[in-house]
What we know:
Helices cover 39% and strands 16% of the residues. The protein is an alpha+beta fold. The protein has four domains: 192 residues, Glutamine Phosphoribosylpyrophosphate, subunit 1, domain 1, CATH 3.60.20.10; 178 residues, Rossmann fold, CATH 3.40.50.620; 53 residues, no CATH class; 60 residues, no CATH class. Strands 4, 5, 6, 7, 8, 13 and 14 form a seven-stranded antiparallel β-sheet that branches. It has a six-stranded antiparallel β-sheet with strand order 2-3-1-10-9-12, with helices on one face. It has a five-stranded parallel β-sheet with strand order 17-16-15-18-19. Strand 15, helix 6 and strand 16 form a beta-alpha-beta unit. It is globular, with a radius of gyration of 23 Å.
Amino acid sequence: xxxxxxxxxxxxxxxxxxxxxxxxxxxxxxxxxxxxxxxxxxxxxxxxxxxxxxxxxxxxxxxxxxxxxxxxxxxxxxxxxxxxxxxxxxxxxxxxxxxxxxxxxxxxxxxxxxxxxxxxxxxxxxxxxxxxxxxxxxxxxxxxxxxxxxxxxxxxxxxxxxxxxxxxxxxxxxxxxxxxxxxxxxxxxxxxxxxxxxxxxxxxxxxxxxxxxxxxxxxxxxxxxxxxxxxxxxxxxxxxxxxxxxxxxxxxxxxxxxxxxxxxxxxxxxxxxxxxxxxxxxxxxxxxxxxxxxxxxxxxxxxxxxxxxxxxxxxxxxxxxxxxxxxxxxxxxxxxxxxxxxxxxxxxxxxxxxxxxxxxxxxxxxxxxxxxxxxxxxxxxxxxxxxxxxxxxxxxxxxxxxxxxxxxxxxxxxxxxxxxxxxxxxxxxxxxxxxxxxxxxxxxxxxxxxxxxxxxxxxxxxxxxxxxxxxxxxxxxxxxxxxxxxxxxxxxxxxxxxxxxxxxxxxxxxxxxxxxxxxxxxxxxxxxxxxxxxxxxxxxxxxxxxxxxxxxxxxxxxxxxxxxxxxxxxxxxxxxxxxxxx
Length: 582
């Protein structure tokens, strides 16, 4: 299904109010064909994909299985996967060699009910502290609770780093189900079961040929089961980069000929390269410039309201104030319930944090990557040291090293990318798109990630190994132009290698200040755009920012991406009205 909402039944008044709010919000999201199911202690509301896709619910009398997102069991998808999971899954200890995809699932069998997330808990499930409600919709969860308070750390993480890290949200009263917990839903409430989800903690020595074959098969395994279900009813992006090229290669290797698309301005590098590759390979590239559509300011408020419910209030990068083309593009790439594929998380094959090949502390990662703020951005409610320490603690917890402030082995540092960065940033993307139709992010499959964790750092630098893997899977695609200034059949260029090296050798204190130094050079913007001028924004947000001014100094911020996310929170605050405690 595209979504579910669970509420405990022991307080009938609360349960009925929560269900009524969830039903109304699901309709605003665009869900239809809602179904309800009761089992001892709980009431379930669920909905299938908005656009269409594989079956996501199976009923066997007292037993049933319901899924939000895209789940596979062995080589199966849809109803066969749900049937096999009901038959074979030994909960709360499922066989992760069979269970794949990004999803949240509710399984009831033999008188016990369990709520579980995918390997990295990328598909988001929100819950209150007392675990009376569980919801894949943030707005439904917010509507069910009588009162909400902005969480200081969550607000600053969303504003500065695009998404809150770990299991936090922007609200103190809402958390997300983490990867190390499975919830048993009993008649008297929820019980947590701890589950282990290990990854290799160090690189392995291996001949390059054997390494490539192992990676090729891991990638093929996850792609094959999706291609078997969807065939050519698949959409795949293509740009000048490496990750989308590798995703396309993996699809073609399994006999799929997907529809190819690219976004950006007509004269943009990604569009130019995608068209060149398509012309050389003999396939059409569908192009869309999302910023090309004009929107009358008088129509902006209605568009933003649609975006708010479509994107569940807090889209990635705060893209609430766009012209509606993001949603149109998403719907087009799921035409008729088709599968959409993403190259997201491809940096599992690369040195994402650009750190040298030696042990490092979690604090080093927090300071070099998550310190995207400048002096004067925030009010005195912001404590820089506490902000960095909280992120450090979340990193250590995700790695199973809570409280360990020492330097960590370099291989363990690599796990921060899938366990923290991918789960948070790409998890939000997966959760929003995955409610509309099936979505495949093959590089976040835990088998693919595990193999990538065995790569030595020197093969990750400058994309050396990823390019060789691409060339082994699809030499023709690898030999086409790229945005890196070299073909992927060639070693990385001197410019590419120098660019990465110059970042790796920069000391931590300088990298922590790099964002602030860029801000001092003048206004900043990102590629996510939006209609941010006062003639538009003044119609949907109080430009005095009465709520967010408690956290930020808006007039001192010259980063339009940061201001867009702050405006997103201001809009949310106005929507909540008196429910929001100050």
